[in-house]
Write a structure and sequence with these properties.
The protein is α+β, with helices and mostly antiparallel strands and 630 residues long. Helices cover 50% and strands 13% of the residues. It contains 14 helices and 18 strands. The strands form 8 sheets. Strands 5-6-7 form a 3-stranded antiparallel β-sheet. Strand 9 and strand 10 form a beta hairpin. Helix 9 packs antiparallel against helix 13. The radius of gyration is 38 Å and the shape is elongated. The two termini are 18 Å apart.
Length: 630
């Protein structure tokens, strides 16, 4: 071996050891840096110098060692597993946050419980049953009713506000997803330029890119692939191209197009003609692998609009029968409601044949599918609809007892007046034709109030904010009080939360509550009917329930349903957290930096550096001896 060749062997060892020391020092400097991946030097023999040739082999002399690469120690399979389980965990955590917010709104876990308002109202009703004309009892009923409806409206308003909060979160997440896409794209270009000469690996830049992928996996379902030649990573989000080799296809947001006024946003792909990112009508399950990402969970929890009691179909409303007991869709409550809405909105009239058969009717099946796709998946919309159903039932039960109605057919039969077929102008200014189902105030069976020492009838306890209960009309020279129902102003005609308040008349004069007879005595039958309304089983929580519940039992099951959902999500989170942490622990055991191990490596490479240095000194002395002494 020539002297200078031997010197090169020492120099290569010195250079390789120095680079290894630099890599180890870099590891130690980043031992506490989140997302940093341990870098490991790899060595290989330098090229060999051929000095001779034999029949079966070559005579070669090695000329040293080379640092082949400083590579990150990372397991791609563990990365893929972590990102999938992390996305699933974030999905259920977002759902759990929505349930926590609902529980806080109702105060059942902490604070003043809404159940207390129900208890107070029930107690006030029971006291009125004992003494219907007592001003003290009536005052208690009015005050309890006022507190009840105010609190109920406040809860519903808070749920609407939380929907708006989730809507802002949707926009924030979309912005963050786009920012991560930009970051990955920029890092792709930097990594590609740095590694173009095949001299070094852009390890720190790769760490940043992997951290961005980790964060992105928590918000959306991603698939990614790295080109082994260029080092560029392409990313698909929810099966659609997001980061390509040359571009980032940003996600956008668009106002939802629903049949209800809505300011809620939905994520779309602008480059695909605003195609929605998600199909939220599909059932969510781990089997379908669509329970991934906090963005999807936020959209599901928020829903696409507000909800009310009309969104919950009741099969008993779809089973119309005539006076003889024969199936007749025109007599079903659901058909009558749909007919009035269609007449108000000017849409095609419903087919009565679709409203026969209860659960087997075409209309019920259609409305049930709508409920299962648009209401049930959303925790906020489900709570809104079920809570509004409770309040609506309480309000309409009390109002219908205090202000009873009678249909035109029955009223015409009782009075002999010619009503059916007559026209009148309703509260909205539209001309209506009286049908046999048109409702009127039943003055003959109504109670009396004693407001300001005068007899009054038709004073309801709860009022709709935009529509009075009755409108006064004149038919053939005679005055009637026609009930303003669904066909007057659409949803504004409903006794629904956000549209109900206590009647100001009874708030200022309790005696106007119609709980007296015409001669001023106690209307005990009406008072007892109020008490019976609380104990009668008349409500089903969801379309799947077969048994009906009283108001109090309904609310108990309602809150229990929320608690069960929270418990289910909590169990899923615990399971996913353990699974995610387990995979991440395996990742960290491979890619994490151990300071004790790195210190050991530092000592080893320093020893190698010193050995190479001594070797060079020996060769230097030999060369000096050869040059100066011989």
């Amino acid at each position: 071996m020539g002297g200078f060749t031997s010197l090169m062997v020492g120099v290569s060892g010195l250079r390789s050891s120095q680079n290894a020391i630099n890599a180890t020092s870099h590891n130690l400097a980043n031992v506490n840096t989140p997302g940093y991946v341990r870098q490991q030097p790899f060595f290989s023999d330098s090229s060999y110098k051929t000095v001779g040739r034999r029949s079966m082999s070559y005579d070669q002399i090695g000329i040293g060692v080379d640092l082949t690469a400083v590579r990150r120690v990372r397991d791609r399979l563990l990365d893929k597993a972590y990102r999938q389980e992390n996305g699933r965990r974030e999905f259920y955590e977002a759902q759990m946050r929505a349930i926590d917010e609902v529980e806080e709104v109702f105060g059942e876990m902490d604070g003043v419980k809404f159940q207390q308002y129900l208890e107070d109202l029930r107690y006030a009703v029971q006291e009125v049953v004992k003494e219907p004309t007592s001003q003290v009892k009536q005052a208690l009923l009015v005050q309890s009713s006022d507190a009840f409806i105010r609190r109920a409206n406040s809860i519903y308003h808070n749920l609407e506000e939380y929907q708006n909060t989730l809507n802002k979160q949707v926009q924030n997440q979309v912005d963050r997803i786009n920012a991560l896409g930009n970051k990955i794209h920029e890092l792709n270009k930097k990594i590609s330029r740095a590694e173009a000469g095949d001299v070094e690996n852009a390890n720190d830049l790769r760490d940043q890119r992997d951290n961005a992928l980790d964060e992105l996996s928590g918000m959306v379902n991603i698939r990614y692939n790295e080109d082994p030649t260029s080092g560029i990573v392409t990313v698909k989000v929810e099966g659609v191209d997001f980061v390509s080799e040359s571009n980032v296809y940003h996600m956008g947001t668009k106002m939802l197009d629903t049949d209800k006024d809505s300011v809620l946003l939905t994520p779309v792909w602008p480059y695909l003609k605003d195609n929605p990112v998600y199909n939220l009508t599909t059932k969510v399950s781990t089997k379908e692998n669509n329970d991934i990402g906090s963005l999807r969970a936020t959209l599901l929890a928020r829903g696409n609009c507000t909800a009310n009691y009309t969104d919950i179909p009741d099969s008993s409303d779809y089973d119309g029968k005539d006076a003889a007991g024969n199936p007749d869709g025109t007599e079903s409550a659901a058909y009558k409601r749909a007919l009035k809405i269609a007449q108000y909105e000017g849409t095609p009239l419903p087919n009565p044949a679709d409203y026969v058969g209860g659960k087997n009717s075409n209309a019920y099946k259609k409305d049930l599918v709508t409920y299962q796709k648009e209401i049930e998946p959303s925790s906020i919309k489900t709570v809104m609809a079920e809570f509004d159903q409770l309040v609506n039932s309480i309000v309409e039960s009390i109002n219908d007892i205090l202000c009873p109605n009678i249909d035109a057919a029955s009223l015409q039969a009782k009075t002999g007046d010619n009503l059916i077929g007559q026209t009148y102008v309703d509260a909205s200014g539209k001309t209506r034709t009286i049908t046999k189902d048109t409702l009127f105030f039943d003055a003959e069976n109504a109670g009396y109030g004693r407001g300001e020492n005068s007899e009054v009838q038709g004073t309801e306890l709860f009022v709709r904010d935009d529509v009075e209960r009755y409108s006064k009309i004149n038919i053939n020279g005679k005055d009637y009080m026609v009930f303003n129902d669904y066909g007057v102003f659409g949803t504004e005609s409903l006794y629904t939360l956000g549209n109900i308040s206590l009647n100001e008349e009874v708030l200022h004069d309790y005696t106007k509550i119609p709980l007296s007879t015409k001669d001023g005595g106690e209307d005990r039958a009406r008072a007892e009917a109020l008490g019976e309304a609380w104990n009668s089983a008349s409500m089903k929580l969801t379309p799947d329930y077969n048994t009906q519940r009283s108001f109090m039992k309904y609310y108990t099951e309602f809150t229990g349903q929320i608690a069960n959902a929270g418990n289910m999500y909590d169990n899923m989170i615990n399971y996913q957290t353990d699974l995610t942490n387990g995979v991440n622990d395996e990742r960290l055991s491979i890619m994490g930096v151990s300071d004790s191990e790195e210190l050991t490596n530092l000592i080893k490479f320093q020893a190698a550096y010193n050995a190479s240095s001594r070797y060079i000194n020996v060769i230097d002395e030999m060369l000096e001896h050869l040059v100066t002494r011989l």
